[in-house]
Amino acid sequence: MTDTIAAIATAPMDAAISVIRVSGPDAIADINKIASVDLTEAEGYTLHYGTVNDAGEAVDDVLFAVYRAPNSYTGEDSVEISCHGGVYITRRILSLVLGTGIRMARRGEFTERAFLNGKMDLSQAEGVNDLIRSKDEVNAASAMHAVKGSVKHILEPLLDQLTQIVAQIEVNIDYPEYDDVPTLVNETLLPEVQAWIRQCADLIRTADQAVFVRNGINTVILGRPNVGKSSLLNALLEEDKAIVTDIAGTTRDLVEGSVRLGSLTLNLIDTAGIREARDKVEQIGIEKSLDALKKADLAIVVLDATAGITAEDQKILDAVKDRTHIVVYNKKDEKDLPGTLSISALNKDIQPLIDEIERLYHNGILSAKSDTLNNERQIGLARQAADAMRSAEQELKDGASPDLVTVDLQNAWEALKEITGEGGKEQLMDEIFSRFCLGK
Q1: Residues 64-85, buried b or exposed e (16+ Cβ, 10 A)?
Q2: 401 by DSSP, 3-state: which?
Q3: Cα distance between residue 29 and residue 198, in whole Å
Q4: What's the CA gap between 385 and 423, in Å, rounded?
Q5: Closest C-alpha to 250, from 221, 280, 229, 276
Q6: Cα 6 to chain center, whole Å?
Q7: Which pLDDT band holds residue 286 (cuts at 50, 70, 90)?
Q8: Cα–Cα distance, 73 to 75 (Å, whole number)
């Protein structure tokens, strides 16, 4: 944290403009060594036109953006150099910057410093990375919520309730003559703990749905040979990725692809037609199909509208009955079946299927766009907090003294605080004493 660091903040490719970011206690003084303008007295949030010089010779016309601590992204003195975006000139300027004694930044070090300097919490820092990597509207919206502090906001009610519960126990320990312990447990603590568990469970359930939708739905396309599975895959992907012929058993291996449908991403797997295998190679393909079904979040069962439901179709329907699935009748251009979900994959008439998939995952889409936990790390810590509170609930039911469950309550509090990079028993007790003035 005492070093001054630098890195190229834009993509390593030819572009109109590149940005070199510098941050640290000596950022302004060191950049001043290679700048044609004096930056030492520059105010924060100001732009300065000049050149970057090498031994007094101009290398490039640039803009120097100066930020003064603590009002910068990292919370430190910072300079951002906007130069012409050629790869060579950008790297040459970076070399001159490093030549002043500034060191190269590690991956993520600017945001790490922002976290360590209190400019953002850990969930916001994760949101920054998610925003950079987002590839669709849902992921970008979710990441932006996180950057704005949504995770801390949704955790605050749970943390406040925990603080209240622990405070009541502390009061009982300090002033036992004011409370009857059984009454305290049965009428106050136990109902509050149980209400907290329900609220946390709702948070985890919503977060699970959101992460599920953001990561993409692993979708397997099943059916007997020649019902149009590969045609459906090609129609969804809008490319001829799978071989389509009228020869049964053309698909022998799994064919995969990822596609964005409205607000959803489907990670698609086209499988070998499921039937009694004609040879060993086809048998291996069918076994892979059944294995893919076990790992899938969604199964799309394709039936032939011109043939009705065969014995082979029924076996597939039986295999998916306990899993999330959609049954779709293909070849409606040859025979339309009213009252069914019908498509024509060959003619790319598949909108009814897309609408059904979006309807099926509507709640998950809403969750992904709302304020919620954003990744498995955060959800895992919330589960730890819920487990700790369930342990406290059981101890209270078993007649344990309230002061004996404080360890579980503190564990729950610290797990939630770890989501945002905070925590510690001392911080919990500081909050209690400052809020309730226990006077010890």
Answers
A1: bbbbbbeebbbbbbbbbbbbbb
A2: coil
A3: 55
A4: 12
A5: 229
A6: 28
A7: low
A8: 6
Residue 245 has pLDDT above 60, yes or no: no
Nearest to 333 by CA among 247, 233, 231: 231
pLDDT over 80 (residue 149): yes
Amino acid identity of residue 133, one-letter, is R
Could you give the angle at which helices 376-397 and 406-419 cross, rounded to 10 degrees?
Answer: 170
Q: Tell me: the pLDDT tens digits for 347-395?
A: 999 999 999 998 888 877 777 778 899 889 999 999 999 999 999 999 9
Token pair belonging to 389? 């509170």
Of 262, 315, 252, 317, nearest to 286 (Cα)?
252
pLDDT class of 440 with cuts at 50, 70, 90: very low
Amino acid in position 387: D
User: Taking a C-beta distance cutoff of 8 angstroms, is the pair 169, 182 a contact?
Assistant: no
| Average pLDDT value for residue range 98-108 | 95
- pLDDT at 276 > cutoff 70: no
Partnered with residue 62 across adjacent β-strands are 50
Place of tokens 């660091």: 5
40: number of Cβ within 10 Å = 10
Distance separating alpha carbons of residues 142 and 138, to the nearest angstrom: 6
Task: With a cut of 80, say whether residue 235 has pLDDT above it.
Answer: yes
Pinpoint the alpha helices (H) of 270-374.
280-295, 311-320, 351-360, 362-369
**Mean pLDDT across the stretch 218-222?**
88
Helix (H, G, I), strand (E, B) or coil at 128: helix
User: What's the alpha-carbon Rg for the chain, to the nearest Å?
Assistant: 30
* Termini Cα distance of the chain: 37
Burial class (CB within 10 angstroms; exposed 0-12, middle 13-18, buried 19+) of 49: exposed
Nearest-angstrom CA–CA distance, 230 and 115: 48
Spatial CB neighbours of 111, under 8 Å, sequence gap ≥ 6: 120, 125, 128, 129
For residue range 48-62, list pLDDT tens digits in order. 999 999 998 999 999
- pTM of structure: 0.74
Q: How far apart are CA 136 and CA 203, in angstroms?
A: 24
**Cross-strand pairs, 53:** 58
pLDDT of 281 above 50: no
The Cα–Cα gap between 178 and 236 comes to 68
- Both tokens assigned to 210: 């959101």
Question: The tokens 């955790």 sit on which residue?
Answer: 155
